[in-house]
Amino acid sequence: MSASVFGSMTCPCGTGTSYGGCCGRFHRGAALPATAEELMRSRYAAYAVDELDYVFRTWHPRTRPTDPKPQPGTTWVALEILDTVDGSADDETGMVEFRAHFRDASGAGVLHERSTFTRRAGRWFYLSREE
Asked: 8: part of which helix (H) or strand (E)?
């Protein structure tokens, strides 16, 4: 994604702020998410803008796949945060429950998940999902 786009589009994570000032700064490596929810939002945005290297870098090494799979033909259209348990800047673990709305060849769909996160060396990582 070009640098000019970073500041001009609204972030797909749903905060209503610019991509460059929101999740784009995490994707570029200019900042680290301070909370589990920020990491959740930035990972959703990474899928939406095809920044799968970021998804890989923020997946805990113990649970991440060899290579995150792109989802050709999938358009991520909205993110709803339903619940957050712990995951603040002072916590070591956190959980974020969300609904990610998408469209693909078969129509509209929703991914509903409870994701667990952990901090390692001061950085948040996605650990696993509960269904």
From this structure: helix 3-8
